[in-house]
């Protein structure tokens, strides 16, 4: 992304140079009015005027003066020094402007800067290419600059209601649009910067990954079901004290573990498809979080009792969602709290309401996680400690599923943890 500070600084420098030009010209005119016309001929004044005019052509022709007249000589030298300084400042500003234009025209993002009336002040080369426009559209209303009517409507709404980001599909392109509002505008000219990025490649990669998960999951599901059924039959017909029973038991356990992984892969693929299609599920209804939490706690009661965990559930809160998806969130968070807890530890599930919305918190007194791992916890198959994960039987997809379900409903996920103290996960379902 282009740094809006660079744009603001460079534009401010250019405008400041123009302001200096006005002040310097005024000072020069004052000098001429005060001294030259009173003591020099009309021809002299015309020479000075022509010399100053030469600045606009990128150079300066110094005013010549007769050194025999000390007073006029000093005035002419002052004029020459001021003019030289101004010319240097103008050249520096012009160089900065060219640098800025070079950067703007050679980035991959499309950039448009508009004023409070949505008049386009800056439009870089990629933006002109995207909308099939040229330099003549700079200085005109955004309505003329953006060729896509639906995108124009969304931009108009964004500029009116405030800066935010949204995705938009334009023909075969997937676009990510960011609206950045400048602090008070740049000299009352630029108030908003529109940055449009082509994320088609990322979208394609995400779809390919999702398709792989979905296809692999479906292909593995059938043979795993067969293996699991056959091993169960073998366990029934084999002597529990025999070596064959031990091997069959191991095959059965590993098959169950692989089956859980495949199931999670299919769940994640399903959620991603809902996100990409922006589907609103017909099954969405008012869900009481405490009821789902109680159901999850009951389902994992045996596992919690093995570690003698103290479990408490407090509060109530309603959200509009698919009950199955809410179950996935609470089940994954609670099972992590059980699996990674310590003997005689505790788990506290709290549901409540704040100004932001309905909040679900799952806190445990488990082994905790080093803070450096927290940013990556929601990545697929990410392991803090591979040996620890094998002992608990996790698939490495639980928090990835939680993250995607949260995104599906616009909920905010926050994880805080400390090694040896415990982990607290908060999900905020916004109003």
Strand segment count: 12
Q: Number of helical segments? A: 13
Low-confidence stretches: 1-10, 36-41
Distance between the termini: 30 Å
Q: In which range does the helix fraction lie?
A: 40-55%
Principal-axes geometry comes out as elongated
Average pLDDT: 77
Over all CA atoms, what is the radius of gyration? 35 Å
SS content category: alpha+beta
Summarize the main sheet: 5 strands, antiparallel
Order of helices and strands: HHHEEHHHEEEHHEHHEEHEEHHEE
Q: In percent terms, what proportion of residues is strand?
A: 15-25%
**Major beta sheet, strand line-up:** 2-1-5-4-3
Please give a structural write-up:
Strand 9 (346-353) and strand 10 (357-364) form a beta hairpin. This protein is an alpha+beta fold and 431 residues long. The model is unreliable at 1-10 and 36-41 (pLDDT under 50). The strands form three sheets. A five-stranded antiparallel beta sheet has the order 2-1-5-4-3, sandwiched between helices. The chain has a five-stranded mixed beta sheet with strand order 7-9-10-12-11, with helices on one face. 54% of the residues lie in helices and 19% in strands. Helix 1 (4-39) runs antiparallel to helix 3 and helix 9 (289-299) packs across helix 11. The longest helix has 38 residues, at 200-237. The protein has helices at 4-39, 42-53, 70-105, 125-131, 142-145, 149-161, 200-237, 243-277, 289-299, 301-306, 323-339, 386-392, 398-408; strands at residues 110-114, 120-123, 165-170, 173-186, 190-198, 285-288, 310-314, 318-321, 346-353, 357-364, 412-418, 422-430.
């Amino acid at each position: 992304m282009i740094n809006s500070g660079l744009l603001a600084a460079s534009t401010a420098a250019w405008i400041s140079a123009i302001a200096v030009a006005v002040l310097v010209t005024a000072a020069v005119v004052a000098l001429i009015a005060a001294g030259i016309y009173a003591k020099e001929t009309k021809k002299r004044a015309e020479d000075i005027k022509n010399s100053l005019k030469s600045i606009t052509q990128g150079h300066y022709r110094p005013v010549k003066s007769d050194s025999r007249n000390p007073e006029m000589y000093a005035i002419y030298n002052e004029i020459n020094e001021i003019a030289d300084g101004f010319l240097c400042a103008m050249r520096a500003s012009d160089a900065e402007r060219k640098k800025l234009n070079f950067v703007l025209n050679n980035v991959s993002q499309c950039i448009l800067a508009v004023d409070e009336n949505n008049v386009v002040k800056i439009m870089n080369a990629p933006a002109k290419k995207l909308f099939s426009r040229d330099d003549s559209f700079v200085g005109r209303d955004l309505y003329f600059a953006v060729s896509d009517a639906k995108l124009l409507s969304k931009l108009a709404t964004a500029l009116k209601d405030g800066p935010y980001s949204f995705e938009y599909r334009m023909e075969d392109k997937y676009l990510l649009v960011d609206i950045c509002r400048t602090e008070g505008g740049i000299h009352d000219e630029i108030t908003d910067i529109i940055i449009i990025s082509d994320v088609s490649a990322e979208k394609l990669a995400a779809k390919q990954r999702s398709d792989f998960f979905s296809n692999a999951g479906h292909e593995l599901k059938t043979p795993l079901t067969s293996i699991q059924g056959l091993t169960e039959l073998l366990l029934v017909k084999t002597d529990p004290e025999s070596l064959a029973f031990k091997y069959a038991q191991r095959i059965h356990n590993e098959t169950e573990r692989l089956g859980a992984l495949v199931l999670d892969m299919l769940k994640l693929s399903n959620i991603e498809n809902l996100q990409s299609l922006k589907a609103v599920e017909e099954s969405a209804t008012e869900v009481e979080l405490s009821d789902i939490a109680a159901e999850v706690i009951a389902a994992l009661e045996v596992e919690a009792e093995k570690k003698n965990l103290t479990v408490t559930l407090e509060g109530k809160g309603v959200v509009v969602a698919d009950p199955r998806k809410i179950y996935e969130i609470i089940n994954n968070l609670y099972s992590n709290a059980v699996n990674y807890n310590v003997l005689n530890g505790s788990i506290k599930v709290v549901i409540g309401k704040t100004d932001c919305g309905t909040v679900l918190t799952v806190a445990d007194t488990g082994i905790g996680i080093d803070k450096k791992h927290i940013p990556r916890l929601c990545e697929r198959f990410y392991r803090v400690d591979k040996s620890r994960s094998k002992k608990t039987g996790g698939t490495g997809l639980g928090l990835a599923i939680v993250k995607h379900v949260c995104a599906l409903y616009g909920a905010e996920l926050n994880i805080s943890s400390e090694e040896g103290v415990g982990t607290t996960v908060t999900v905020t379902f916004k109003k």
